[in-house]
Amino acid sequence: QVQLVESGGGLVQPGGSLTLSCSASGRTFSNYAMGWFRQAPGQEREFVSWSGTDTYYGNFVKGRFTISRDNAKNTVYLRMNNLKPEDTAVYYCAAQRGGSYWYAPAYDYWGQGTQVTVSS
Hints:
Layout: E1 2-7, E2 10-12, E3 18-26, E4 33-39, E5 46-51, E6 55-57, E7 65-70, E8 75-80, E9 89-96, E10 109-110, E11 114-118
Parallel strand pairs: 2-11
Antiparallel strand pairs: 1-3, 3-8, 4-5, 4-9, 5-6, 7-8, 9-10, 9-11
């Protein structure tokens, strides 16, 4: 059993930055690959980033986002720079023991989500 809690969301102006955090409790954090997804109203859940044996990013990122993790703190981060209004969504972190990194149903545990709103 793994419990995930996201934090760091909020309201930011276009071009601004936010860093999201996801803290995990339960089993050893290093045994899991961690992903970030986002979901806007009326849209499917979209892959954002993944950290495991390597790192991967969704095509929309354009080099703006960076995923990192601190296994000692059981925490994964998502640094988001140059935010755009289309980045507005609820952002979720998720953990998987293994599977397709881009596929939401492949994840075993999910956080509650944190709202990111990009608007002037």
